[in-house]
Structures are given as C-alpha cells and as structure tokens.
Amino acid sequence: MAKPPIREIFYTSQDGLKLFALEYGERTAKGVPVICLPGLTRNSKDFEPLARHLSRRHRVLCPDFRGRGRSKYCENWADYTPVHEMMDTLDLMGAAGLPQAVFVGTSRGGIVTMLLAAFRPNVIKAAILNDIGPEVDPKGIERIAGYVGLMEVPSTWDEAAVKLRMMNEREFPNLSAEQWRTFARRTFTEEAGTPKLDYDPKIGMAMRKGLEASKGEIATMWPQFKVLAQKPVLVVRGENSDLLTATIVERMLAEHPGMKSVVARDRGHAPFLDEPEVLAAIDDFLKNDIH
Q: Which of 17, 275, 249, 93 is nearest to 103 (CA)?
C-alpha cells in the first residue's frame, strides 16, 4: 500500500505573518480531518509519528505556530499569545477549506483548543488534550518559564541529545540513545550542520511577562472546558507529568463524565503520542466516540 502523501502549506495570518503547516494524507480521506496543535516552543515535527499513523484514514494538518519552526517570527513579543494562535488556527482552516476537525492539542495547543471551544465551538468535532487541562500545576509552569528562550544552544547534535537527556531523564526514564537523538532533532533545527533554536526566544519573554503581570497567579480555564465538555474528549496524561496531575484529571472527569483518559507510562510533560497505549486509545476514540 502506497504511503499517504505529505504536502507543505503556506498561508497568511490576519495580521500579515507567513505561516507554515504540514498536511498528511489524502484530502478526500474518509475519516474526520485532524488538526494537531503543538506545545509552547514546539512545532509540527512533534506530530510526525501520529500524523503518519492517522493519515491512512484521515487528512491531518500540523501547523507551526507563529514564531516556531518554519513560520515567521513576530516583531513584538506581545503578539505571542494563545488568542493569536487561535486566530491563526482559524486562518489555517480557512486556507485548507476545513469547516470542522478533531483537534489534538499538546500543552499550549490544548489551551488553544479550549479557547476555540469558547470562541468558535462549531469548528471542533472532538478534542484530544495531551498533558494539559483547564488547570495546571504551578511547579510545571515555573520549570518551563525557567528555560524558555534562555537555554544555551548545544554546539553539536550529540551534545543536544545529551543535554536533553540530562534535563528530562527523570520524567522520561527509559528512552534509548536513538530516541534522545530523535527528540533532539524535533527540539532544534539545523544551521550550517549544527543545532539552532527552532523558536523565537521572545516567546519566553512573553510567558515570563504574563506571569509577572498576573503576580504568578495562573489563570484556570474551567469555563472554556465546560464548553468543550459538550464534545467528545480524550485526555492523555504523562505518568510523570509535573503539569497535569491525576487530581486535575479526576476533576475533568467529574465535569465531563463521558471523557476518556489514558496514561502514557514512563512519560513526563508531554507524551510523544507514539506510545502503544496512547495510539490504541486515540484509534479507539476516533473510531467509537466520534459520530
């Protein structure tokens, strides 16, 4: 059987930024289209295994949010907000001719998905939230704010893999050397043969300024989640996550009794979505919960 095609899409945001997305699968695929929204400093590369897997039955779009990957950077740090990213996602849907999709949101991408539920609920057929909920543990946010845009860029790819292993091994205890190298390639881009940050450091500034303005108080999104709770939802939680606790997932289940959940074993924030138990839960969710 031939591999489903992969295409590059360039489109323009409402405020004039040239943005990029990868499209997997046939545009006429029978399954509901899927849009994968990445984490704070991440991009479309994170979804490659999932997108390839799903593209046998679904058309899958994986954007690089503004300031990440192959999308253009903003001049002003204040333009890096989940609201801007939500509007960019709607621009992508317009460019791709998609009125509705299943949204897979990793971390920041899940926040954008919950915003979409409140702002334009009809575009969401269902949602898969990857290690994110309407409330997060402040410890995880503090950890992320401590390195975003401040991380020293490794000088070689071997160093990149070792550095990521040192930072993340406690939460991801059983990755092979090859998996750490893959993680490095998804985390950094390449320039003249060496690793380079794959996002605008101003994203870190935007995050820290936001925390400063709120005096460290992290806003919750329970009202937005209540709107999303009218849709089929699957939540993926990393067993070792310091962002999404088991207690928050329990409260989410109380708000949305029909919600499905799966724990990615030996994973922190955020699971890769290529874990066998996670892929099985996603396949089951797309097959049985979406009508």
A: 93
* 3, two tokens: 């591999």
Q: What backbone torsions phi and psi does residue 228 show, to the nearest 5 degrees?
A: -65, -30
User: In this predicted model, what pLDDT tens digit does every residue of 197-237 receive, in sequence order?
Assistant: 999 999 999 988 888 887 767 889 999 999 999 999 999 99
Question: In the block, which residue shows the tokens 């709607």?
Answer: 90
Cα separation, 290 vs 100, in Å, equals 13
Tokens of 287: 């097959």
Write the pLDDT tens digit of every residue in 128-157.
Answer: 999 999 999 988 888 887 777 778 899 999
Q: Measured between alpha carbons, how far is 143 from 99 in angstroms, rounded to an integer?
A: 37
Which residues partner with 79 through β-bridges?
none
Alpha carbon separation from 182 to 49, 55, 158, 188 (Å, rounded)? 11, 21, 11, 10
Largest CA distance in the chain: 55
| Exposure string for 223-241, b = 16+ CB within 10 A, e = fewer | ebbebbbebbbbbbbbebb
